[in-house]
Amino acid sequence: MIDVQSQKDDRRIEIDKVGVKNIRYPITVRDKANGTQQTVASINMYVNLPHDHKGTHMSRFIEVLSEHRRQITLENFSKILEELKTRLNAESAHMEITFPYFITKTAPVSQAEGLMEYVCTFKGSANRSKGRDLLVELRIPITTVCPCSKEISSHGAHNQRGEVRVGIRFKKFVWIEDLIRLVEESSSCEVFSVLKRNDEKYVTEKGYDNPMFVEDVVREIARKLEADPNITWFSVDSENFESIHNHSAYAYIERQKSREA
Predict the structure, then answer these.
(1) What is the pLDDT of residues 129-178, one digit of tens each?
(2) Domain assignment present for 4
């Protein structure tokens, strides 16, 4: 049969990324407490296309993905990218995997258990001239209590749920759970899926005793990431879904650390 994709193209325009997007796929990822976890991911996969090639072979992306679906980890991410380059005869390959990650959390007083969902993304690229790059991103819900409201009010202080988005580049393997814990401990209080009345009392008072602006949240997370020699680059932002305003409060920090750090 005629291989149309491999035919020549005379426009002499290279394509930076061509591939498949929004593949919904069951995958297995590493879980610190249980070994592995089954989840469903949304996956994007691309390669570059030389100027003289008419098209790429889309089915080969799915073939590579199918071969690794039983375990996609930070350790084998680069291997998948290299296989994409080889299978599609490309100079560069890119992959983005976004999935819900679940952790069993215990309420602080009643010890009631519930599942918390966190959105995780792995982004990677492999380029023959630029080398490899791997980025982990997480979206983590938190709560904050406004320091200003507490200071000026005689009764209580306004509080709200927020979301932290943190991304890191690193030298060696990082557990998702450890990054989540670092962020949650940098807020007024963490979020739980199951709370009894005695738990509600606890988290309300804990937040009140630990008021934080969005500026405080991102600075505290940045301070901890700066001190971790395994982290080479990070970005962190915090958004408060304000309870007494019709807007969100927002703060962002990005840092490239020394490679020798």
Answers:
(1) 888 999 999 999 999 999 999 999 999 999 999 999 999 999 999 999 99
(2) no
Q: How far apart are CA 111 and CA 159, in angstroms?
A: 24
Give CA–CA dist 95/62, Å, rounded. 12
Domain of 98: which CATH number? 3.10.270.10
149 C-beta neighbours (distance < 10 Å), count: 15
How many independent structural domains does the chain possess?
Answer: 1
- Range of the structural domain that residue 228 is part of: 13-256
pTM, full prediction:
0.90
Residue from 142, 148, 185, 146 nearest 165 by CA = 142
Residue 145 identity (one-letter amino acid): V
What confidence tier does 52 reach under pLDDT thresholds 50, 70, 90? Answer: confident
Distance CA 182, CA 216 (A): 14
Q: Is residue 1 part of a domain?
A: no
Structural element, H or E, at residue 66: helix 58-68
* Residue 146 structure tokens: 């406004």
Structural domain contains residue 95: yes
Residue 241 lies in a domain: yes
- 38 torsion bin: left (phi>0), alpha (psi -120 to 50), beta (else): beta
